[in-house]
Amino acid sequence: MPTARELFTEEQIEEFLRLTREHIPRDLAAQQIGTTGSQMKSLARPERDPEFAARYAGALKEGDDFYNALLEQKARKMALDEKNPDRRMLTIELATHHPDYAHLRRDRIRHEGHIAHQHALTIELPEGWQDTMPLDELEETEEDIRRLKARFGRRGGEVIDGEARELPPES
After folding, report:
1. pTM (2 decimals)?
2. Which pLDDT score is estimated for 164?
3. Residue 140: which pLDDT band, with cuts at 50, 70 and 90?
4. Cβ(30)–Cβ(16) under 8 Å?
């Protein structure tokens, strides 16, 4: 398998690494020297080209440091300019890329305690439904409601009367 020096000139390699140090994404940096990000990633494997892998890892670290410093500088400037509309975007960038601002990320949720939830069964009945129902069915229905209250009411829930409607199947 060829190494980076066998495929590219030293100038091309240095250009790719310079762009990487400036936090340019690998695909875009690779395009600038006439190749793909996938090929550069492959070349950066230590078992394939240890020298290039070390140089690339160093450039990535420098690129991250550069970008973090740039974000901090921009954050300080924006902090002094209360009218700046880009403050939210900067917060997102800081949270995403800068390790000191990881606490701002919204995908990290910490919960301590108990989450309470409840379920409800609702049935829509037409007005005066009791008047049209045979007495034995009405008594059965009332008994069913009493059993539900007895069974679920003990667990801290409550059965209430009120308006109800059936949700459409797609809900």
Report:
1. 0.50
2. 46
3. confident
4. yes
**Residue with token string 């009493």:** 146
- d(C-alpha 28, C-alpha 19), whole Å: 9
Tokens of 158: 């409550």
* Distance between CA atoms of residues 58 and 125, nearest Å: 71
Count of C-beta atoms within a 10 Å radius of residue 150: 10
Q: Are 76 and 94 in contact (CB under 8 A)?
A: no
Contact between 59 and 21 (Cβ < 8 Å):
yes
Count of CB atoms within 10 A of residue 139's CB?
11
Amino acid in the structure at residue 65 = D
Q: Which runs of E-coded beta strand occur in 68-156? A: none
Query: Is the torsion defined by CA of 135, 139, 144, 149 positive or negative?
Result: positive
Amino acid at 151: R
